[in-house]
Amino acid sequence: MKEARRLSPRGGGRAAVLALACAALPLFGAAPALADSIVYAKDGNVWLANPDGSGQYQVTADGSPDHPYRSPSQADDGTIAAGFGDEIVRMRQNGEVLNRIDPPALLDSVSQPLDGPPIDVAISPDGSRIAYTMASYTCPVAAECGARTATAYTAADRLTPPQQGGTTYLRDPSWVTSSRTLQFGGYTHQVNVHDVGAASDAHWFDDWEVVGQPASTDLGDGELNPQGTMLALVRGYGPGATVVWYDVSGNAQTSLPPPPSMRCATGADAGISGPTWSPDGQSLAIADPEGIWVKRGAANCESPAPILAIPGGSQPDWGPAPVNPGPRAQQPGPLPAPSSGATSKPRPVGCAAKKGAAHDRCGYEAALKRCGKAPKARRARCIAAARRAYAISKCNRKHGKSRARCLRAVKRS
User: How far is it between the farthest Cα atoms of the chain?
Assistant: First the structure.
């Protein structure tokens, strides 16, 4: 985050750029009390730290860049949930696994099954539920090729049927309350709310409703602060992506307020992602390729400047629990079996027996073999779909919460 700017409600493109040379400025004000924490991903594992970057603690040790933990999030009591392979892992701060969930395939908007790694994982503030998203690039019969997503819920301590909480064709779920999420989609359906158990989501606003049609672009990867007064999200994509935060009037926790008003934006930064609010709703943590930046006093665009609190970190989630992992188990027993609705699972064979990049490559090669047997008229389309699916799989594993830009890039390729 090299710069930020103040935005007028409908004139963001004309706003003056405010230099925030973070490295050249002293830390702002007195250090706040360390009563909260940021959970994040680094080097394929889950970590915790105080918001100023101190007290960094490695929660997991079995992840790697080729087989990483993805999208870690935390409940108010510090319980962590993250994606790992095809599972959702719920754990304590010291890495003790409470349970693992292997969610079933979800149906996308053209009734095709989406399976594989959950790319977004968000545990509710009260720790009772987990929202998760699956994605794939498909070329179904009688429908256009495209990247498609679906989002569902499960109880945090066991697998529950997706139909129980309701499913959507959206992505990037973040919790507004323990029974309502924000979710994001494409044009005309960009920012939405979904109440657990509701048959469908409710559209809140699109970018064009705030900035006008000529200047509108993509919105996603957002979070409402716990007080419901401010919203932060990623606006745009590629080298033009920024994080924008807004003032919210009305009550997004129980109703649909009018479109919010832009307050501030970071400078354009390829790879910027994952804005997350402090428990008091006054500060933001934002990830970019350098690491995780913390902007205190978000109501003021100019000062204090953001600081690079956690170099090398990504996918942050800020919660009220302090960093207090306690001792690790000296001789941990076997991990709990994943909850999948079945009493047991057969030993995996073929591609299912492989992990990480090897699993993706095996599936890609198998898909190419199937394409070779397809009718000649469909062969080229089949191969193109296999290549795009492989590209998305690699993106999911490598980039975690930055994968939305990958999905759009693959779709345009």
Answer: 69
Sheet holding 219-224, edge to edge: 17-19, 3-6, 261-266, 242-247, 230-235, 219-224
**Sheet harboring 171-177: ordered strands across?**
171-177, 180-184, 191-195, 202-205
Integer angstrom CA distances of residue 360 from 134, 205, 224, 353, 364: 15, 36, 34, 11, 6
274: helix, strand or coil? strand
Q: What is the pLDDT of residues 353-403, one digit of tens each?
A: 566 677 667 766 766 666 665 556 555 666 766 676 777 766 666 555 455
Q: Where are the domains of the chain?
A: 3-26+33-319, 350-412
Q: Which fold has domain 3-26+33-319?
A: Neuraminidase (2.120.10)
Which residues partner with 276 through β-bridges?
285
d(CA 132, CA 408): 19
Structure tokens at 260: 């919010």
Element containing residue 114 per DSSP (H, E): strand 113-114
Q: Whose CA is closest to 157, among 194, 123, 183?
A: 123
Residue type, 24: A
Q: Is residue 52 pLDDT above 90, yes or no?
A: yes
Q: Which amino acid is at 60?
A: T
pTM of the full structure: 0.78
Query: Do residues 307 and 293 lie in contact, with contact meaning Cβ atoms separated by under 8 Å?
Result: yes
pLDDT digits (tens, 9 = 90+) for 146-165: 889 999 999 999 999 999 99
